[in-house]
Amino acid sequence: MRHLAFEGLAEKLQSTLKKLRGAGKLNEKDVKDAMREVKMALLEADVSFKVVKDFITKVTERAVGHEVLDSLTPGQQVIKIVNEQMTELMGSTNSKIIFSSKPPTVLMMVGLQGAGKTTTCGKLGLLLKKQGKNPLLVAGDVYRPAAIKQLQVVGDQVGIEVFTMGDKVSPVDISKAAVAHAIKSGNDVVIIDTAGRLHINEELMEELADIKENVRPTEILLVVDSMTGQDAVNVAESFNEKLGIDGVILTKLDGDTRGGAALSVKAITGKPIKFAGMGEKMNELEPFHPDRMASRILGMGDVLSLIEKAQTAFDEKKAIELERKIRTQQFTFDDFLDQLQEMKKMGPLSSILEMMPGMNASKLKGMEVDDRELVKVEAIIRSMTKKERQNPDIINGSRRKRIASGSGTSIQDVNRVMKNYEQSKKMMKQFAGMEKDMKKGKMKMPFFR
Amino acid sequence: MAGLFKKLFNKGQENEQEEIQAEETEQLTDEEIEAILVEEMDQAVEEEEQEVKGESPDSFFSRLKDGLTKTRKSITGKLNGVLTSFKSVDEELFEELEEILITSDVGVSTTMKILDNLRNRVKEQNIKDPSEVKELLKQEILAIMGEDIERLEDQTPAVILVIGVNGVGKTTSIGKIAAKLKASGKKVIIAAADTFRAAAIDQLEIWGKRTGVDVIKHQEGSDPAAVIFDAINSAKSRKADVIICDTAGRLHNKKNLMEELKKIYRVIEREYPEAHKETLLVLDATTGQNAISQAALFKEAVDISGLVLTKLDGTAKGGIIIAIKSELDIPVKYIGVGEKVDDLQDFSSIDFVNALFEE
């Protein structure tokens, strides 16, 4: 019922701006009408009133007088600008824990009651353990009944030691002792669970400041329930002011909330959201993807991907064909040439690849293609015969010589292109494998759209 | 009328300033601050009662007022600010009122509905004084919140099923409800049917000890329906009046978990047909618009009889309950205002709205 209302935003926006078709530029009145709809959508998604206001102001500035791209309707153009602004505000992927140069790295989890701190401690511990760390969980919630027991059970599930001194010792002393214990027993990461508390509870907020003072945590992570409403800004602001948080973990994102709190918290604290809790199982803590969150908050992922498709010159059919070729390992120089043209439009290869999770940037060394180089490469490929392009294996020494003189380049240049092609082919094969691993429909390769 | 309101508003603002000063004095302990706050609230209420003739002191109101102080202060404080700073009833006033309702999590559609009605009435009655608009706004919200609702403890034997998403405060609320029912002379049994979350059973047992109530439990990971089956049988043999059933927190969009809930509900209906049934959905007051989705989907699975709105002692305003009442017609039965055993209060719609708008 509610969701239908959300899904209507894209259509509403487009119909609001339909009359503008062909006018060329977005005018102030039309943008203002559209912004009313955007505002409502953001508020329905629980983005803070104040943040929405700022956001609308910025988008309006950006949109008024903006050219409407040939391939887009004015409505789509506005949505595009809204999405860009939102993505900018959400920041880029930053799901890394900064480890201390002098172990142990101490992570301190803070937040309101019921946000999911204890569960997240276990999940984060497991994640770091899988990365080869040797974490220690610290039971610092001495207030909530059975909180210590809960952490112990969680620790058991993930096979991580839990440090506890019962509920009669102050969390400050527990934390200090825990770090000492970690140093002695070789734990390189210490994750401190703390009791849930209200941000307006001075005494308990002071306790957190005390822990911070005494153990100097490497990172303080605020755990926020993704279903939080307008209060999210108050909570984030108070915790950040009192403690200076380093990042946010968003929990319960496997629910159906629009998650506007994510935007509010990011806008208010400027701190990155690092991870998202995506389920009840201990391995369900995932790196946070700001771009996905942006389209989730806007509630029009379909329209956004449509817009992307419209503006990407990449031919869908070509992409499918290319994908098939890669799978069957028939990637030819013709395809390589196509790919190079596409890269020219999409920006440097390395930056595209960096956006992809699980991609190791160091693998891309030597793969970079700059524009001048691209001209050369193009000339070289165009100097190949059709047969050579389709079947590069036949390109022997004398053919290389011919290609070099035909394209006005050196044999070394031709050799480099051959090498690049081989690497590219290899990389494409890796992608194809990677895509199979990825959950169906969850993510698409930027190349193969 | 207008003069009286102005007087009340001014006084409210003075009190607020004093309270801010008190909070700034760092030497004071929380208890002392609390005492000052309560004292000031009492004074305010007494003065108010002297001025507003015909409004007798109400024990219900006085119990509610502590918990609602913050909610009331934040909404009314802002509201009064708006209403005194505007000289005429114009679109700007409505925009400010819109902001107040939205930032209280009332939600866009319900806010629009309330304000549309308010606009019409202001036009019909040709109201020129902003302070009168407040009275009308209160009436609008009151109309949505509706009449008082029946109390739980009036009917026995009863089975109370407590449900909700993760982390809203189900287990804590159960401890508090158990204490409340026990204090009213009922024999209570708690069924520890959250067999999923780590140490949920231990947490409930601690509440059982605190309140002197028996807890029926199985192992972690066992079938929750089986726990409830056992609890019903022991309640019958021990002649308990009320069984309170804890359940694991579950997100409302998880089909299998909602099916599990339906199964639990069926067991209760089948095993104890003669008992009065209550299903309380626990909502976190800090939750935004997703609370409507929660209420709607839980209601689809089981017949919800009321809400427990927790964590109202923070800065969240819990305005979402107005939207839930408006869209799904589910009333609120209890509010949670702290971590202590007696920090659970009966909810009454009328008093809630009154408390929101009276200082």
Describe the structure.
The complex is a heterodimer of chains A (449) and B (359). Chain A contains 19 helices and 8 strands. Chain A has 449 residues and is α/β, with parallel strands linked by helices. In chain A, strands 3-2-4-1-5-6-7-8 form an 8-stranded mixed beta sheet, with helices on both faces. By secondary structure, chain B is an alpha/beta fold. In chain B, 57% of the residues lie in helices and 12% in strands. Chain B has helices spanning 2-24, 30-51, 59-85, 91-103, 108-124, 130-145, 170-183, 200-211, 224-238, 255-271, 290-301, 320-328, 349-357, and strands at residues 158-163, 188-193, 214-216, 242-247, 276-284, 306-310, 332-336, 344-346. The relative contact order of chain B is 0.15. Classes of the chains: A alpha/beta (449), B alpha/beta (359). Chains A and B meet through α1, α2, α6 and α9 of A and α4, α8 and α11 of B.
Compact description:
Chain A has 449 residues and is α/β, with parallel strands linked by helices.
Query: Which strands sit side by side, in order, in the main sheet of chain A?
Result: 3-2-4-1-5-6-7-8
Total strands of chain B: 8
Summarize the biggest pleated sheet of chain A: 8 strands, mixed
Strand content of chain B: 5-15%
